[in-house]
């Protein structure tokens, strides 16, 4: 499988990071420290660090500008906005899920406290809107409205995810719809936002939107697989993190609704009182595989990737832009972290 478009991904930090750092500099000193730590720019004591994320969304936003016929520099505002919005969601998500590790180090709330992490997330979302409102190009209004709409969907997906924790009747359709809102909406936004900002024709932005929706679904399905079977040394999270917290992720809901004996055994395990220990996690993992849930998730991720690549082919983009987008799409389903 083709892995990362390394040459292009290597350009992304140099293009986007200075803009994000400038935006963080507008915050009060406390929020600057928390957000810079979360973004991977510094350690908890303020010393320099290089522990940032994968940069998939800003890369897509830059490629979106290129798909509209502009140089990647024209998509920097879109890339910064979508990355800030993404990290707003991560800060809040870590608090809600009580995750203590992200990117191989303590989460922001575990270091600075819950109130500080919540406020830092709020600050990042405001900065995401600021970076677009400060742009004077014709496509700014469309881009800002699109970001707002997709963040609304992201929040709705997060609400559904939390609600699922209190329910034992979640359907697979509901779980996939939650994934479409919580993850695919912002990924789709990233794929279209640079083109919107460059005032691209509707046919281009709509095609990029559909591409991003399928890409986001593939990304989330792979993420759900890694949440169960991922290696901590690569994912930066504890082994079986989703199972330990009894999350209703797609593979879990697939098993619970499979009508198999393994699915019923998993339901009983999830309904048991007390913490799930390592032996329980091994049992749950085996039950998921016995129910066919791992294979189903992989096949579904591959199906969405095929649809994303078909949408890309239909756009008729220049070969270099097409190839960079195709390589990045394949990275989403070929990643291990």
Q: What features would you describe in this structure?
A:
This protein is mainly α and 337 residues long. The chain has a single domain, classed as Farnesyl Diphosphate Synthase (Orthogonal Bundle). The protein contains 16 helices and two strands. The protein has helices at residues 6-24, 29-39, 56-67, 76-97, 108-112, 114-133, 140-164, 172-197, 202-229, 232-235, 241-244, 250-256, 261-271, 278-290, 293-315, 319-334, and strands at 101-102, 105-106. The protein has a two-stranded antiparallel sheet with strand order 1-2. Helix 13 runs antiparallel to helix 14 (278-290). The longest helix has 28 residues, at 202-229. The chain is globular and about 60 Å long. The model is unreliable at 1-5 (pLDDT under 50).
Give a short synopsis of this structure.
The chain is about 75% helix and about 0% strand. The protein has about 325 residues and is mainly α. It has a two-stranded antiparallel sheet with strand order 1-2.
Q: What is the level-2 CATH architecture name?
A: Orthogonal Bundle
N- to C-terminal distance: 16 Å
Compute the gyration radius: what is it? 20 Å
Return residue spans where pLDDT drops below 50 for at least 5 consecutive residues: 1-5
CATH fold title:
Farnesyl Diphosphate Synthase
**In percent, how helical is the residue content?**
over 70%
**What is the level 1 CATH name?**
Mainly Alpha
User: Number of helical runs?
Assistant: 16
Structure classification: mainly alpha
The major β-sheet equals: 2 strands, antiparallel
Q: CATH H level: which superfamily?
A: Farnesyl Diphosphate Synthase
Strand order of the largest sheet: 1-2
How many structural domains can be distinguished in the coordinates?
1
Order of helices and strands: HHHHEEHHHHHHHHHHHH
β-strand percent reads: under 5%
What does the overall shape look like?
A: globular
Tell how many strands the DSSP assignment holds: 2
Mean pLDDT: 92
């Amino acid at each position: 499988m083709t892995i990362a478009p390394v040459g292009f991904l290597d350009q992304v930090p140099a293009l986007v990071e200075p803009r994000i750092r400038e935006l963080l500099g507008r915050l009060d000193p406390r929020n600057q420290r928390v957000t810079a730590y979360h973004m991977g720019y510094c350690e908890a004591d303020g010393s320099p660090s290089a522990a940032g994320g994968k940069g998939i969304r800003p890369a897509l936003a830059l490629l979106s500008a290129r798909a509209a016929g502009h140089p990647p520099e024209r998509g920097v505002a879109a890339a910064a906005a979508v990355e800030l919005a993404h990290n707003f969601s991560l800060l809040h998500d870590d608090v809600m899920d009580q995750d203590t590790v992200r990117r191989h180090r303590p989460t922001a709330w575990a270091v600075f406290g819950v109130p500080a992490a919540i406020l830092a997330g709020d600050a990042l979302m405001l900065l995401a809107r600021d970076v677009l409102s400060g742009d004077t190009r014709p496509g700014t209004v469309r881009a800002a409205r699109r970001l707002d709409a997709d963040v609304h969907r992201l929040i709705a997906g997060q609400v559904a995810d939390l609600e699922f924790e209190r329910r034992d009747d979640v359907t697979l359709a509901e779980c996939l719809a939650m994934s479409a809102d919580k993850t695919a909406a912002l990924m789709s936004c990233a794929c279209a936002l640079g083109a919107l900002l460059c005032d691209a024709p509707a046919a281009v932005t709509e095609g990029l939107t559909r591409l991003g929706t399928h890409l986001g679904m593939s990304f989330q399905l792979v993420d759900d697989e890694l949440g169960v079977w991922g290696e901590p040394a690569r994912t930066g999270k504890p082994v079986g993190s989703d199972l330990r917290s009894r999350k209703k992720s797609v593979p879990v809901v697939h098993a619970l609704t499979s009508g198999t004996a393994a699915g019923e055994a998993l339901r009983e395990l999830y309904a048991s009182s007390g913490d799930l220990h390592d032996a329980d996690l091994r049992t749950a993992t085996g039950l998921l595989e016995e129910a066919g849930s791992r294979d189903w998730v992989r096949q579904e991720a591959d199906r969405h990737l095929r649809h994303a690549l078909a949408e890309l082919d239909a756009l008729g983009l220049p070969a270099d832009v097409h190839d960079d987008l195709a390589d990045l799409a394949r990275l989403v389903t070929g990643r291990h972290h």
